[in-house]
Amino acid sequence: MGTTQLEAAPEPKYWHLRTVLSEALDSEFSVGEILPNERDLAARFGVARATLRQALEQLELEGRLQRRRGVGTTVAPPRVGVAVASTDEDRPGASADAWQVVDSALDAAPAAVAGMLGVRAGESVHVLRRRRVSHGQTVAAELLYVPAASVPGLTAIDAPSGPARGRAVLRELQRQGLDGQDRAVELGSVRAEDAKELDRLPGAPVLVVTTRYFSKGTTAAVAVATYRADTCRLTFGDTPSVEIHHTPESHAS
Amino acid sequence: MGTTQLEAAPEPKYWHLRTVLSEALDSEFSVGEILPNERDLAARFGVARATLRQALEQLELEGRLQRRRGVGTTVAPPRVGVAVASTDEDRPGASADAWQVVDSALDAAPAAVAGMLGVRAGESVHVLRRRRVSHGQTVAAELLYVPAASVPGLTAIDAPSGPARGRAVLRELQRQGLDGQDRAVELGSVRAEDAKELDRLPGAPVLVVTTRYFSKGTTAAVAVATYRADTCRLTFGDTPSVEIHHTPESHAS
DNA sequence: CAGTGGTCTAGACCACGGT
DNA sequence: CCGTGGTCTAGACCACTGA
Fold first, then answer.
1. CATH number at residue B225
2. Taking the CB of residue B53, how many other CB atoms lie within 10 A of it?
3. Which nucleotides of C are covered by protein (CB under 7 A)?
4. Which among B136, B140, B115 has a CA at the least distance from the CA of B207?
5. What is the 3-state secondary structure of B15-74?
6. pLDDT value at residue A242
7. Nearest-angstrom CA–CA distance, B203 and B231
8. Average pLDDT over chain B, rounded to whole?
């Protein structure tokens, strides 16, 4: 290729590109602005499209870019802070704007979940599908597993499944009283099933938050929530949604 | 390619491959076992190496695989749970085994950090480099920013920089009394500088934990810690390091 | 429809680890 | 030194969006 670079750089091209583009984003582009298409950009930098894409991938991972098939690549807004540790997250009333029940049914608990719940693997539990919307965008999809034993007062008046039933389960769970929570955060990839709802392709990176709800010394429920890693910053603590300038590349010197 | 698959699958090859490999890992491989090399695997599945690599990348992201140049691809152990919200994380005595001070110096605070600390951008603050070791492996690198105003009692007896000075800063910070913390977790990529320490290539995914320490109503310090996303599960809450079966693909139905 | 990003291929060479 | 994964290329075709 050309003789543009004169550095003795053992630095990969895509990484250098990432840096160059990152700086360009800071200085020459504004949020929402659309970048030149990948073929043009690759040509402009004198690299193959695959290499250019590797750099774009990084920037998307860091929440700097947003790419949509058929549309283009745009400059992403700073990540939104979503509060994960609010105390009354599951109270249907208080959290109506944060979580909405999509569906509910009785289903077998996966082995990992069954273990945490202390029920037999494959035992049927309530499975609530919930969705979290923030700033007009779905930022998280969740599966909430509630063993029948945790909601003894649940009547059969409501339908056996559906959103209404789900809300009834939540109400009853809340009525039992929850005295503690326990969370873990790890990196994962979107299941094909959640991909559409989160408007991402299968395999896109997500932050998986596993929550255990305790009641009277036992694990009353387990929630597995997947947050879009590109657009979300999970906040914990007393001051939930303080706006912080985004931290693209882990931290600067 | 061959006529092995008979599905009308609009599913990408790499995604299908990921699933197949994932199941194979569950049933036919044990932790630490070394997989066939990428060229062989690609040939075996009748795909290009790039496609095979895309599948491996996914599995590595999910913490199922570990790839090392010059060595090979091995089956990764379940992610280790690292407690992030323990109350006395910064007490030098109690956390000696978790965090170790690598270095310390006075340096300009990056804009984002300066904003949180309430100091002028570029103002000189104590910058502590710390490292967290778990199960004999470095799982996190951290930069702790402490403005001079937060450690008024700091004497000039110790060296102006170096690990010893860092420990002195920590001691003094602890002596001032911290009355609260505030955390945010987001996805990022390893800086080139941290890459070596974490034994990862630049750009590898990390969980960036930004912590603000409060004292007497003001932000006394800010820490930016980057955890290896492939090997770590961040835990919050009362029961820190309970072993949970890993959750590879966000969650199973 | 044209234009975008997403997938896939079949090569090549490089950087690194261990022998 | 060889074998490994990591980078890079130059193409091709597909899936989706919006005019």
1. 3.40.1410.10
2. 17
3. 2-12, 15-18
4. B140
5. HHHHHHHHHHHHHHCCCCCECCCHHHHHHHHCCCHHHHHHHHHHHHHCCCEEEECCCEEE
6. 44
7. 15
8. 86
Contacts of residue A181 in chain B, CB cutoff 8 Å? 237
Q: Is any Cβ of chain B less than 8 angstroms from the Cβ of A11?
A: yes
H helix intervals, A99-179:
111-117, 163-176
Tokens 């420990």 belong to B167
Same domain, A100 and A69: no
Residue B50 tokens, joined: 């790039």
Give the residue from B152, B145, B192, B198 showing the smallest Cα distance to B172: B152
List the single residue in A with minimal CA-CA distance to B190: A250
Judge if B103 and B180 occupy the same domain. Answer: yes
Same-domain pairing of A86 and A204: yes
pLDDT tens-digit map of B99-115: 999 999 999 999 999 99
- Residue B190 sits at the chain A interface (C-beta within 8 Å): yes
The residue that leads in pLDDT, A160 or A218, is A218
> Of A52, A75, A98, which residue is a domain's last?
A75
Stretch (H or E) spanning A160: none
Q: How far apart (Å, rounded) are the C-alpha atoms in residues A6 and A9?
A: 8
- Please state, in angstroms and rounded to a whole number, the distance separating the CA atoms of residues A30 and A24: 10
Nearest partner of A76 among A91, A93, A61, A89, judged by Cα: A61
Cα A55 from chain centroid (whole Å): 22
Provide the domain limits for residue B22: 13-75
pLDDT band with cut points at 50, 70 and 90 for residue B249: very low
Helices (H) and strands (E) in chain A, counts: 6, 10
- The verdict on a CB contact (< 8 Å) between B238 and A205 is no
Whether B99 contacts B205, CB under 8 Å: no
Cβ separation of A187 and B180 shorter than 8 Å?
A: no
Between CA B54 and C1' D6 the distance (Å) reads: 13
Instruction: Tell which of A41, A75, A109 closes a domain.
Output: A75
Looking at beta carbons, which residues of chain B come within 8 Å of A226? 250-251
Distances (CA, A) of B103 to A56, B66, B185, B206, B222: 33, 29, 24, 21, 16
Closest CA of chain A from B51, distance in Å? 13
Interacting residues of A54 by C-beta distance below 8 A, sequence separation 6+:
A14, A17
Q: E strands, A80-148, where?
A: 80-83, 99-108, 124-134, 137-146
pLDDT of residue A110: 92
Which residue, chain included where needed, has tokens 């996303």?
A: B229
